[in-house]
Design a protein that fits this description.
Number of helices: 4
CATH class: Alpha Beta
Shape: elongated
CATH topology: Alpha-Beta Plaits
Distance between the termini: 78 Å
Oligomer: single chain
CATH superfamily: Cation efflux protein, cytoplasmic domain
Length: 134
């Protein structure tokens, strides 16, 4: 009885930015996601993230529409080469829905995913060449 009464004694509003952060963090946790965002925003954000004293923008690549009881989420991602895009998208969708619904109580009506790019393996991960001089 007390819980029921307490639930009617006010209103909780979840800001768009909160849903964006939750969705961004959840998407990044999925194996196969290399980065979030696309084009200029991703490049600028990557440069900014390397600057001392700046934090990673966890909402990069995430746009949301939040209503009183529902939310819709749009994600732009970069997927690692060699991973099934369909599998990654399904995993991201499930993980984001679970995280947002659990943390906010909002009903996620859709998660749209745009795969902006595929990250190819770098040559920097290869063995370093032997230096010619000592």
């Amino acid at each position: 009885m007390l819980v029921e009464e307490a639930a009617t004694r006010g209103k909780t509003v979840v800001a768009d930015g909160v849903v964006e952060k939750i969705a961004g963090l959840a998407a990044r946790e999925v194996r196969g996601i290399h980065a979030m965002g696309g084009g200029f925003a991703r490049g600028y954000g990557a440069m900014r993230d390397r600057m001392p004293g700046t934090a990673t923008d966890v909402s990069r690549g995430v746009k949301v529409e939040v209503g009183e009881k529902q939310t819709a989420i749009d994600l732009t991602v970069v997927v690692d080469y060699g991973i099934s895009i369909a599998d990654v998208a399904a995993d991201v969708r499930g993980h984001v829905v679970e995280a947002v619904e659990h943390m906010t109580g909002l009903d996620v009506v859709e998660v749209n995913i745009t795969v902006h790019d595929v990250h190819l393996p770098d040559d920097t991960t290869a063995e370093a060449p032997t230096p010619r001089v000592r």
